[in-house]
């Protein structure tokens, strides 16, 4: 527990990059707390900075690109219904605008409910690639089925199944990253694969533009081919996942040396992020689950996540239509979504690099949120006469994407950094992501068809959620700073006089020795 608390903080006796004290006193400390032996601590201390950078580069090239591709496919599959809509989905299925909103929202019910149990199950898998490959293949098959629906009820059925199978991917990817990287290394990697959600918007528009040209092929409408072909791509990616998604260090001997594997495992154990060898995780620990759902911090993070999820899904599902309302054709509207999403992808990565460099999460969440507030304020003011305010409105959409996409990686990293222990981290990631994604239900309903092109409900609600996210971020920053300041007044001797090592381990991030990331 002591190493976990120090690793999250800025203690001068600790290596800021590795999270280990360099003096011999701490090497023996690990023997006392039972995490690693003095010999293992000496091995970690001897691992050079160049060696560390080399092994991280290997992981970056092996793990992150595959997660990016899978998340790209995931986001395309859940959001391509917006592209299908402007290609004739509603009239072909005899659906109303309200039914379309219901079809969007119903995806999020199983999606949110399944995320915690899914992550708890994934945490037990020795080879995550088997679990992840399975769910990707299944949702690809469901996506193909979207192309064969004939009415509103059938569309709702496949959307429910899609939400169920996609539920495990995003929190699972965050969990996998947490098992390979230390907290101060995490946000940049999360952002790299999170940019896939922005790239997906751009790529989805480009794909839809091309696939829609197949209208009439084999007797199927163009929007059906969007679902069918993108579903086939997902199935192929799921099958590839079984071989290409890296599992854990101990299963990576083909591309990691024995010393690199040992280093990666020991640094996690030393920091309290892995349990010592011989520890058995329960399939579902109700005590830990209760500690997650009763943790006040996670609900402020959920409010911040909603400031991204609700406006983001609302905009993603409606952006092609908003741009079409400016007077563009369906094809050109699809293409004009690409620059907006490109801006979002660049911003997500850029803000995350800054956040990891300074090891400070709050500013790189609040500034993007303020950009979102500004963007929707412009749209609220100008959308009533959108065809005469195209430059301002299109700029506002780009600014909204610039602000929305950095928020998710920042909130996920902040949450992950402040959860102690692998079991609580797995459940905490799943709980925040699951409850946070309920914002997608709201986002599915805020853009009302009959309110086009002004969309006062959609633009106004998005502005409100972003403003609420700013307040939540500033409040959490102040509260965590206050707790850290209070705990800094306690000496380690006083804490150990009051609590045993077992007590401190059980307390997790509530231990007075734990230092919260701000």
Provide a descriptive summary of the structure in words.
The protein is mainly alpha-helical and 518 residues long. The chain has a single domain, classed as MFS general substrate transporter like domains (Growth Hormone, Chain: A). Helix content is 74%, strand content 0%. It starts with a helix and ends in an 11-residue tail after the last helix. The model is unreliable at 1-34 (pLDDT under 50). Its main location: membrane. InterPro entries: MFS (IPR011701), MFS_dom (IPR020846), MFS_trans_sf (IPR036259). Residues 63-485 form the Major facilitator superfamily (MFS) profile domain.
Order of helices and strands: HHHHHHHHHHHHHHHHHHHHHHHHH
Strand tally is 0
What share of residues are in beta strands? under 5%
Cα(first) to Cα(last) distance is 19 Å
Number of domains: 1
* CATH homologous superfamily classification: MFS general substrate transporter like domains
Q: Please, how many helices? A: 25
Name of the top-level CATH class: Mainly Alpha
Question: What are the low-pLDDT stretches, counting only 5+ consecutive residues below 50?
Answer: 1-34
CATH topology: Growth Hormone, Chain: A
Structural class: mainly alpha
> What would CATH call the architecture?
Up-down Bundle
Mean pLDDT value: 87
Shape: globular
How much helix is in the residues?
over 70%
Whole-number radius of gyration?
24 Å
Major sheet details: none
